[in-house]
């Protein structure tokens, strides 16, 4: 008899990149993400964030920078070109057209601020699990019984 088994590892450490100038919130988010087995790196400037994203290819990027709309769009496009990880963009409540532009620039989800740290964590974990589910499946392994 031959059984099929697919290797799946939901417990491996994933990297989260937090891009924000709010040191207090970064500290809270780092603690929460680390409790969920995520390696957390934070950056406060677009330039540093791009370098880090290029080096680490994070599974999750949380972007919360107060930048002009055009600069934020460009940053989203550059980040998207560097990683296939989830890009969550935290922005003040905007109009629908702005949200569509951010999505087209590479943001997977635009989240209106303020948002509670726990709500952001729940959304982030859902996106990370979605990545696991939609990732190319491992090749089946023959197991002879």
Architecture overview:
By secondary structure, the protein is an alpha/beta fold. It has helices at 23-35, 46-56, 69-82, 96-104, 117-134; strands spanning 2-5, 14-20, 38-43, 60-64, 86-92, 109-113, 141-144. The strands form 2 sheets. It has a 5-stranded parallel β-sheet, sandwiched between helices. The chain has a two-stranded antiparallel sheet with strand order 1-7. α1 links the parallel β2 and β3 (38-43). It is globular and about 35 Å long.
Which tags fit this structure?
two-stranded antiparallel ribbon; 7 strands; alpha/beta; five-stranded parallel β-sheet; 5 helices
Beta-strand residue fraction: 25-35%
Radius of gyration: 17 Å
Can you count the helices? 5
Secondary-structure element order, N to C: EEHEHEHEHEHE
Task: Explain briefly what this protein structure is.
The protein is α/β, with parallel strands linked by helices and 145 residues long.
């Amino acid at each position: 008899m031959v059984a099929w088994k697919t290797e799946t590892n939901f417990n491996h450490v994933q990297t989260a990149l937090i891009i924000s100038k709010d040191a207090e919130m970064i500290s809270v988010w780092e603690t929460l993400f680390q409790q969920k087995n995520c390696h957390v790196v934070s950056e406060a400037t677009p330039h540093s964030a791009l370098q880090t994203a290029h080096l680490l290819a994070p599974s999750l990027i949380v972007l919360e920078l107060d930048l002009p709309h055009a600069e934020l769009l460009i940053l989203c496009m550059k980040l998207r070109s560097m990683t296939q990880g989830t890009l969550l963009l935290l922005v003040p409540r905007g109009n629908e057209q702005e949200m569509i532009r951010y999505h087209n620039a590479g943001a997977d989800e635009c989240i209106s601020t303020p948002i509670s740290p726990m709500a952001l964590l729940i959304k982030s974990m859902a996106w990370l699990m979605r990545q696991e589910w939609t990732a190319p499946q491992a090749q089946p392994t023959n197991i002879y019984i």
